[in-house]
Write a structure and sequence with these properties.
alpha+beta, Uridine Diphospho-n-acetylenolpyruvylglucosamine Reductase, domain 2, Uridine Diphospho-n-acetylenolpyruvylglucosamine Reductase, domain 3, 7-stranded antiparallel β-sheet, 5-stranded antiparallel β-sheet, 17 helices
């Protein structure tokens, strides 16, 4: 079966084929466009690229080109510009060169040379992050891992898959579906497994299945000096030594570059029920979240959308949804009859909280219809405000504090163009504010709202980022959240990366 993702871009890569007998990939000569979805031109080109002092000398260019060949080394302006920004508002920063390694050995040799020469190295997955995580703020080189996109093995009987870092999780799940399996974390964008591990991504199904870190069993990591280590095992449990897999998961490439992983899989449920419930107020909707979770029900996903989000979706997508605070829920089980029984409890809880409408359907098509609404959110918001950039806030609090935080947020952003939604079942809330960063007065107001919301989340014993990672946008809150333990993180960074070359400028204030 041939897999070929076609999206806009300017550079062609070989695609791959999955061999049904072995599950392994083979290179073909068929072109594959970059899988990075470009943000609209007016959203990113208004702001000038940051420039940094050059690190690469002619001898470095000759050496690095010799490692990967001229076809996988580029200093072209369009390629560098493509790798200068992610999906966030943060100012683009040009790398000096982009390299596309094809295996762990090449990554090791490149990083070892960069360490010796003191050249900054920034790993790149799909560029879909929202906090500036892969922006090469110190220049140097970007290692684009999208050519390392092989599915190495599917071990159905062990519920495991071995993948390279550049595999896109949606493509992985399309293949696994034939085996009745899936990789649960679902951040929505066309993210790579390596990027998901680097940010500890989660998404709409985290309420039931958890985050990416819960599915990482083994890692192959290239350390900042070029050394290759392998952490973890294929055993489902272990009490052996420090958990290095968790250390590198969520480290955003600041401690090393993940090149391969063994990930845990889950069995696909036999039946699904999709539910959309609307409410007269935000408080009614968020209170319902707490009561459903407290009841012992186990939703596979539970999402909150405020009325403004629904209004944007209606206008952008030609929908006719009720423009009220809305919960999107998914339940799964062994049979449709079991789901019907579960639905009686859901209906009672929703009606007790003044539910206005309950729209439900059983089966994969209804499930797809429900989540298309949620996955279109970011794109529809941006399309509704051409020429503006988005500051995406991503905080999380204990479930009992969720309703109070949402109320606080609504008051805080009342005079901004802001949209509130999130993974309500695990206390994660997103706030997207659309504005113009070049208008200093306006943007100062946006950033003050950001600070107030994050501080309130921390005061409620939550976190400054539930799933987007620290990157550039959350560095200033790290000391507030972690206190003295931040110094321990800095010591780990200094121990593994004494020259500070790995994704510099991220994580720490």
């Amino acid at each position: 079966m041939l897999l070929c993702l076609i999206q806009d871009g300017a550079f062609f890569f070989p695609a791959f084929v999955i061999c049904s007998e072995t599950g392994l990939q083979k290179k073909t000569g068929i072109p594959l466009l970059l899988t990075r979805k470009r943000i609209p031109l007016q959203d990113c080109r208004k702001r000038e690229h940051m420039t940094t002092k050059p690190y690469l000398e002619e001898a470095d260019i000759v050496y690095l080109t010799g490692l990967v060949g001229t076809e996988r080394f580029s200093r072209g302006e369009s390629i560098r510009s493509h790798h200068s920004h992610d999906e966030s508002f943060h100012r683009p920063s040009l790398p000096e060169a982009v390299l596309w390694p094809e295996n762990t050995g090449e990554v090791s040799r490149i990083v070892a040379y960069a360490c010796e020469r003191g050249i900054p190295v920034t790993p790149w997955g799909a560029g879909s992050s929202l906090e500036g995580n892969p922006i090469p703020v110190r220049g140097g080189i970007v290692l684009d891992l999208q050519r390392m996109n092989r599915l190495l093995a599917v071990r159905s009987e062990d519920f495991q898959a071995d993948v390279e870092a550049g595999v896109i999780y949606k493509e992985l799940n399309r293949i696994l579906e034939k085996e009745g399996l899936f990789f649960p974390p679902d951040p929505g964008a066309a993210a790579t497994i390596g990027g998901m591990i680097g940010n500890n991504a989660s998404g709409i199904r985290s309420v039931r299945y958890g985050a990416t870190r819960d599915y990482v069993m083994r890692l192959t990591v290239v350390l900042p000096d070029g050394q290759v280590i392998r952490t973890g095992s294929r055993s489902r449990k272990s009490s052996s030594g420090y958990d290095l897999c968790r250390l590198f998961t969520g480290a955003e490439g600041t401690l090393g570059i993940i090149t391969e992983a063994t990930v845990k899989l889950m069995g696909l449920p036999a039946a699904f029920m999709a539910v959309r419930a609307t409410f007269p107020s935000v408080g009614d909707a968020t209170r319902t979240v707490f009561e459903i979770m407290r009841s012992g029900l186990a939703p596979g996903a539970m999402e909150f959308l405020d009325a403004d989000i629904v209004r944007v979706l209606n206008r952008d997508r030609g929908l006719q949804l009720e423009e009220c605070p809305t919960l999107l829920m998914e339940f799964s089980g062994y049979s449709e009859r079991g789901l019907e029984d579960e639905m009686h409890f859901v209906t009672e809880i929703c009606q007790a909280n003044a539910c206005l409408l309950l729209d439900r359907g059983i089966g994969p098509e209804e499930r797809k219809r429900l989540w298309e609404i949620r996955h279109l959110t970011h794109e529809s918001i941006r399309r509704a405000h051409p020429g503006l950039l988005s500051l995406s806030m991503d905080v999380a609090v204990p479930l009992s504090r969720y309703s109070g935080l949402v109320a606080f947020i609504k008051k805080t952003v009342v005079d901004l163009t802001a949209y509130v939604f999130g993974h309500a079942g695990d206390g994660n809330i997103h706030v997207v504010v659309m504005d113009n960063p070049d208008d200093e007065t306006r943007w100062a107001h946006v950033e003050e709202a950001h600070r107030r919301i994050v501080r309130q989340a921390l005061a409620l014993e939550g976190t400054c980022t539930g799933e987007h990672g620290v990157g550039l946008g959350k560095r200033g809150f790290m000391a507030m959240e972690h206190g003295e333990s931040l110094e321990t993180m800095k010591k780990i960074k200094a121990l593994l990366d004494p020259r500070g070359i790995m994704n510099p400028g991220k994580m720490f204030p």
